[in-house]
Amino acid sequence: MIKTEKILHLKSCRGRKVRVVREHYLRERVPCYSGVCQADCVNDGKVLPEDLTHYVVPDVGVVVDYLEILEFRELQGIVFTQTACQAVQHSKGRRQYNRLRNLLKDPRHDCVLFANEFQEYSYCLREKGESQEKWQTRCVYSAAVWYYNHLAGMMDIVMITEDQEAVAQYSCLNSGVYVISVQEYLQNFWPELQAAHELYSSISQALQEKEGEGKEKEYAEHLPAEVLEAGIKSGRYIQGKLKVSKHRPQTEAFVMMEGFSNKSTETGWRVLVHGDKNRNRATDTDVVVAELLPKSEWRWRATALTEGQGEEKSGEDNGSKALPTGRIVGILQRNWRDYVVTFPPREGTQSQSRNSQRILAVPWDHRIPKIRISTQQADALQDHRVVVRIDSWESTSFYPNGHSVRVLGRAGELETEVQTILIENCINELLFSDAQLRELPANSLDNPWKVDPAQEAERRDLRESHLVFSIDPKGCEDVDDTLSVRSLAGGEVLELGVHIADVTHFVTEGSLTDLEARSRATTYYLADRRYDMLPAVLSADLCSLLGGVDRYAMSVLWELDAHTLNVKDVWYGRTIIRSSYQLHYELAQALLGGERAEVPELAQLGPDEKEAKLAQLTRALKMLTDVGRHLRAQRDRGGALELEGLEVRAQLDEERNITALVPRQPLEVHETVAECMIYANHWVARKIQEIFPHQALLRCHPHPQQELFGQLVEVARAKGFTIETGTNKALADSLDQAVDPQDPLVNRLLRMMTTQAMPQALYFSTGAQSRDQYYHYGLALDRYTHFTSPIRRYADIIVHRLLIAAIAMETGAGPGKALASNKELQEMARHINQRNLAAKQTQKLSIELFQCLYFKERDPQTDERCVADAVIYSILDDGVLAFVPEYGARAPVYMKNREGQVVSAGQDGSCEWQSGSVRRYPDRVTTTSSRGTSTFRLFDHITVRISVQSTHCHADRLNFEVISNKPYHSAGSQQPRSQGRSQLVQEVVRLAEEAYQQAQEKAARRPRFSTEEREFCQSKTPNLYSLLEEVRELALMDLEMVPQVCATTA
Ligand SMILES: [Zn+2]
C-alpha cells in the first residue's frame, strides 16, 4: 500500500475556499465489478454484464449536471468514478448524492462505482497550477484507460465529457478508449432514445440560461444551516413541513410541526405563512425553518368560497383566534419532485425576459409557483402538458428555474390528463422491464406450469380433502382468496379455512419483480383502467386461485367448537389447493336463498351427480354464513363501526366489489366473505406479532381526535340527531339511530362525515409503537394486518414472508433469511402508506376527470342530463358544498357572484340572481334580496345545473349552479346511481377513442407528440371498480383542517 497526500480545494457552503490535505492510501487491487474481469477481482455485489459493446465512463461535469440522463435504464455499463461521486457530494448536496447512491444500489440499473482514487495505477496526483476541473477530468480519463487495460482490451471504453478541450486532448491517446461529448454519445449509441435527447437539450439550455441572471434580490437570503440548527434548538425557530393551501395557494401556507404535542404549546401545531415574500421560495412539502412574527402581525385564515371575500375578517366574527404567523428563514430539505406544467399560449402570460425562449410554465398543481423554462420548443409546445424538474431558485429570481423532461401531450386529451394525474402522484415507469419479465415462470400451452414434486412433498395437500371455492365479483381475474369449511369429529368441530395466493413463492425477496412490486406498493385503480402491482402472468394466472387448477396457497385453518364457535386450534402453513368453484356474489347469494341457479362448473354433469354436488356446496355456503354472522356479532359487541368505505365493508370490497356500490341491498354473502378475511388478517397479525414482537408489520387505526367530530355532531344536531363519539361502540350505535325515514341519504352523509373525521388506517412495525397503539378502532380488533390480498398489496407480501419465518421459528428451523429490522420495516411501512395515499388520490382525480370530460361534451343550458338533484352537506360563508348522488359528484354552489348578486328563490323555488346579501349560520345560509329571504339548509335537496369550469393549465372542475331550492324530479332520476357512473366512464372512453382515431388519421400532419400516449397503459379493460372508495374520499371537511393529514402524508 502506498501512502500519498491528496490536496483538495473545496468550496464551503458559503462560498469560502478551503484547502484540505488528506492522507491518501493507494492499493494495487481495487475491484472492477466487471463480468469481463481477467484478474480475479473480488467483485461482490452488482457486476456489469459481459455482453455489452462498451462501458461508458462519464466525466465529473456529466455526472454533476446530467445525472438524469444516466438514470435511463436503457443505458448500460456505466462506470461512476469515485472522483465524480465526490464532486456530486460537494457541489450538489446530500439529496443529489443520495440519488446517485440509490442508482448505484438499484439492481435495475446497470452501473457500478469504481474507487479510482484508491487504485494505484489509475490515481493521478494533482499538478501545480492545474485547475480542479482539469485534474478531475484527467483522473476520470485515467480511470477509463485503467479499465481498458484491466479488461485486457476486451471491452471498449467510452468516456463522455462536456469539456471540448478534453475531447481534443484525449481522444487520440489510446485506441479502445474513446472520448466524446454527451450529445455525440447519445447520437451514436442511442439514436432511438428520443427522451434522452430531449432531456439533454433541455438541461443544457437551462445550464446556459443560468449564467447571466439578474443580481437584484427578490427574496431574503436563507440562513446558513448552523444558524438554523442553533435556532431550532434554542426554540427561536420552528421546524416543519410546508403545506400550501389548496384554496389560496398564492397567499396561504402552513408550517406543519411534527410532534407538536410536546413543545411550543402556545403556537399549536401549525404556523401560518402569508404571502410569497414570507414564504421565501419554499415550495409545498419542503422541510422548512420559520420564525414567528410578532403577535400584532398574526392573521386569520380565510373561509369564503371566492378569493378576496371574507379574507380579512376580524376575530369576533367567527369566534376564532388569529393564527400564529411566521416567515421562512431557511430550508432544511427541498422536496422537489417531477411537476406537470402547461406551456402557455404565445400571446398569453409571457415573461418579459430578454430571451424569447424563456417562458413561464404553469404547474398543474396550484400549490406550485410558475417555473421558468428555457426551451427552443416554446411554439411547438403551446397548450401541451410537459413534465419538468426544478433546478434552482435563487434569491435574485422571482420564479424557480427548471428544465423540461418529457412531453405528455395536448392539454385536455384523455391520455394526457391521465398521465398528468399519475405523474403528479409520483407514479412513474409503469412498465415491467424485459429483464424482470424474464424472471417469471412461464405458463403456455406448449409449456404448461406444473406443481413441482419438491413442493408437493413440503406442502400440506388439500386437493382431495377440502372443498375449496372462491366468491368474487363477476369477471374477476385475480382471485387471491378462497375459502373452505367442513365438519369434523362427528359434527363436534367445524373447520374453517382461508387460502390465499402464495405470491411469495413466485416473488423471491430482492428479485427484480419484488423490487418493482415494492416500489409500486399497490395496484393502482383508475376510473377506466388499472396498473397492476404484479405482471399478469402472476396476478391473473399462476398466483390467481382459479377454479379447477392446482395452485400453491398460504392457508389458515381454524378448528372451531361446532356449538360455541370458539377457536380450539389454528394451523398456518403452505398448501396445495384446487378450487372447485369460482362463484360470484350473486350466484352464491342465490344458492343460499334456495334459488335454482346454474353453477357453470356443474353444467356438464348428470342430474343426480349435479344434485349431490349442489347440495354439498350449498351446505358449505350455509355453514360459512353461520360462521360469518357469529364473527360479525363478536366484533359488533366490541364496537366495530359500519362506515361506508371503512374497512368493515371495504376490506374485501376495497378494490373489487362493485355490488357494494349499491348501498341499498348489500348481499349478506359479501359480509360473510369479508368477515372471514378480517378473521384471517387478525389471526395472522396475532401470530407474527407474538413471534416477532419488535419487527412485525401490522395495521392500526388510531382513535380519532374528539374535536374532529365537532362538525359531525353539529350537523347531526341540526337534523335532530345525537351522535355519541366517546367510544367506537357508542358512535356505531348512535349512527345506527340517525336515520331519516324520508331521506336515506342523511344517514349515508353522516357516515361519510364520520369517515372523514377518522384518521387513516396505517401500517407500522411493531417495534415502532407501544402495544396500546396497535388497536384497530374501525374493526374493533386489538391487532390487525393485511394478509389476504398479496396480488395487489405489497404489505401482504411482507406479511406472508413474516408468517413463513414465524412458522420456521416455531419448528426450530430459524427464520432463514435475516428479517428486516424494526427500522427498515418502519421505513417500508411509511413508503407503503404514502403510496396508498397516492393511489387513493389518483383514483379520486381520475374519477373527477371523467366527470368533467362527460359534462364537457354537453351544453348545460339544453342538455337535461346536466340538471340533477343535489344535497347540501356543508355550509360556507358565501355558499354551500353539494353532492349529486346520481353522478357521485360534488362541488361548491355559490350563493354570491362576482358582481355581488345573490341567489334568490321565488315562490316555485326557481332561483335567479338579484342584488342582495348573504348570511351564514351554523346549519344554513340565507340570502336576502328585494324578492325576500331564501334559506339553504344542511341536507336540503336542491336542483343544480352542472357545468365544467375549464382552467386550461389545471384540472377542470365541476361547477354547480342552483336553479331551484326544491328537489329535482324527473323520470330518469330513479335509476341507481352506479349505473349512471359506469355509463359515464364508458361514454368518456368511447369519445376519447374516437378522438384518438381521428388524431391518428391526422397524424401525418402533426408532429410526433403522441408517441408517449398509452405507453404506460397495461390493462385497458374497463374497470368496474366501486365508487366506494371515492365516496369515502368525498371531502366533507376541508382536509387542511385535519392535523393528521400532514402526519400521514409525511
Ligand atoms: Zn477486475
Report strand %.
15-25%
Tally of separate helices: 28
Oligomeric status of the shown chains?
A: single chain
Overall geometric form: globular
Radius of gyration: 32 Å
Largest sheet, if any?
7 strands, mixed
Task: State the total count of DSSP E strands.
Answer: 37
Percent of residues in helices comes to 25-40%
Strand order of the largest sheet: 18-25-24-21-20-19-26
Distance between the termini: 47 Å
Pick out the low-confidence regions.
Answer: 260-265, 306-319, 348-356, 644-665, 971-980, 1003-1050
Task: Give an overview in words.
The protein has 1050 residues and is an alpha+beta fold. It is 32% helix and 23% strand. The strands form 10 sheets. The protein has a 7-stranded mixed β-sheet with strand order 18-25-24-21-20-19-26. A hairpin with a 4-residue loop joins strand 30 (879-884) and strand 31. The protein is globular and about 90 Å long. Mean pLDDT is 82; it is low at 260-265, 306-319, 348-356, 644-665, 971-980 and 1003-1050. Bound molecules: zinc ion. Zinc ion binds next to loops.
